Amino acid sequence: MRTTAIASLLVITALVAFSSGCGVDDQHTQLMWRSIQSSLGKTQGHGQALTASFDFSIECEESGDADLTARVDVTSPLEHAVNVLFGYDVTYNECRPDENTLDGELHYAAVVDAGASDAGAAVNIDYTYEGSVTSTGDTNGTCDIDVTGHLDASASHTDATAAGPGDEFASDAHVVYDGTICGHDAHEVLNADADISADDT
């Protein structure tokens, strides 16, 4: 059950970014970033230990396709913990995940550490994005990408001694990006914080 909860947390928080480039202004950098995120979809995984590398092609949501080389390494060093290393080498072939059509290459990797206890769960993710992607559509231009990201997320009972329905529950996530995307400072363009409390919903 805890492994399933951790995997669900990874799916919710998972996730992809850029470097110094030309031809894409500040506003459209965010739109292009959304297109790249959409093209990669969601990550899924099962099992206590797994190492795999494989090549495949996917059809993009609207049209075109992308060739991917994927690598996955999953270990569970402790009973209630999991460590995951996964990544993609992506070649876009007129891939249209939304209003933008993407061409070019992108390397994406993430190292995930997650753990759980009776009091709650936490996950830390380090991302790396490198490559050069050209977009036509809502955004037109070439975007060089050199971004690292770090995410901390946790969920817990604020009162660990109470375990019944209606207990106060809190969760939060903190994401920080560094590097450059489309010639813009990734820290300024992409960074976001989220603080969530069950009492606020």
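The record above closes out task 2.4. Task 2.5 opens with a second protein, given below.
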Amino acid sequence: MGFSQERIDTCIETCGCADPEAFLEIIPVTDHFLFDLKLMDPDSHRKYTGQSNGNILKNAALLVQNGADVLFRQPLIPGVNDSIANVEATAGFLISLGNNAARLQIMPYHRMGLSKYRALDVPYALGGLGAADDALVEAVQRAYAGHGINCTISR
């Protein structure tokens, strides 16, 4: 008896950096995708993540075009991806994918993972950043809503 016969939902959390064929293979057995969209500008994406976002954006479109249930999420990092330009570009991208993709969950940046980096003796590249405050998060949420995006906040 498989998962669907037992009514157990399956969910994959992804940054989208994978071979498109891998996504095509798992769509039929995956009920939900949590898909992170960090930055839309390719140069900024490379600067902060070390890689291009071209394949990531193609995979986002691939999932939506193949009928996958995708909740796009954005870790909101002050001074990194909270600009109006990034909000507008992200909203435009989601809208371009169709009505089923016009939803986004903001995940406000916090520093709770800092202790993990210390325990592993790994440098924490965002050490100088403060947490995203409520006023910023709510302003970004309103900006997305103004562009027609159903935007929620993960708290």
